[in-house]
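Sanity check record (used in CI):
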Amino acid sequence: MDDGILDEAYRRLHGTGPEFEGWLSNHGPMAVEALVRHGHGTRVHRWLDDYLRRLDELPRGLRPIDDWREALGDPKRAGDWLAHFDRELRERPWRAVLGTWWPRLLPGIAAGATHGVIRVGHAVRVLREDGAAPDRLAELGQALGYWAARWQPVPGVGPLTGRSDVAAALAGLPRIAERTGGIRERLGRLPDVSEWPGAVAALRPPTTPAEAERTLTDLVHRAGLDYLRFGHGNPVMLVHAVTAPTAVLRTLPALDPVVWAPSVAAAWSATAAVTSVYAPPAPASLPAVAPGGPAEIFARAARHGDAHVVKLADAVLDAHAATGDDRVLLAAGYAAQLI
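Expected output for DUF4243 domain-containing protein:
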C-alpha cells in the first residue's frame, strides 16, 4: 500500500467535518483507504478534488467532554468529541483508547447509519496492518468522535438467545410495513413490528473467540449474497448491511477477546436492522453481472467512483478471501449497476 498517498489524503480530509448537507456522512477517509489498499492510489487525489467541494468545515467545539455518558449521541457536541479523541490519542496508545471506548460506543452501532463503526474499522485496519503515524491516529480520533456524536442504539435489541445460524437468522428477519423516510424514522418503526424482538435475538451466540470470528465472517458473506437478491430495494443503504459487520470483523484483532461476542451481537443487530428497514419483502431474481477476479472487481468499482460501490467492493473482497465464494464478488458489480 502507498502509505504516502493515504497520509496526504488524510491531511486533506481532516479539515472537513464528519458530515455534510445535514446528515450525509463524509465517506472520503473510508473510500480513499480502500482505493489505496487495493492499488488505486493514483486515483485518490483526483477523486478528492471533486469530493472535497461537497464537504463542510470541521465543526467547532463548545466545551470539553466532562460527562461522556451525557454527551453521547449529541451531534451538537461533534466538535467537542473530535477534540476529545484527538487529545486522548496524543496522550495514550491507540489500542488503549480503542479498548476503553469500543465497549462504550458499541451499543450505539447505528450511529450515522452505521458510518461511525465503518469509519473506525477502516482506520483500525490501517493502524494494524501499516503502523501508526500522526495522520492515521488523527483519522482514528475523528472516526471515534463521529461515532460518539451520533451514537444511536438499534431499538429493541437484547442478548442473543437463539439457535439459528446466520443464513437462517437473515431469512427470518421481518420487514417494516412503511418503507419511507430516513434511517432514523425507519429504525423508530422497528418496535412496532411484533416479530422484531424474536428475530433480532434469533442468532446463535458465539461461545468462543474463534466462533465469534467465524460468525462475523459468515455474516459478511451472507449479507453480501443477500445484496444480490435485495439490493434493488435501496441500493445505497443496503450496502451497510455488509460494510458494518466488515468493520467490526476488521477491528476484532485489536480488541480484548472478552468483547468479541458482544461485538458479534452488535454487528448482527446493525445488519438485521438495515435489512429489516430497507430490504423489500421478496427477493428479486439474481441479476446479470459480469464475473471477474478480485482485482478486476475492485478495478471496476474504482472506475465507477461512487464511495459506496468502492466500499462494498472492498468488503466483498474480504468475504471472498475468507470463503472462496466467487458469487459474493458480484455484489459490487450489482451495486455499480444500481447506484
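Strands lie at 19-20, 24-25. If this sentence no longer matches the regenerated C-alpha cells, the check is flagged for review.
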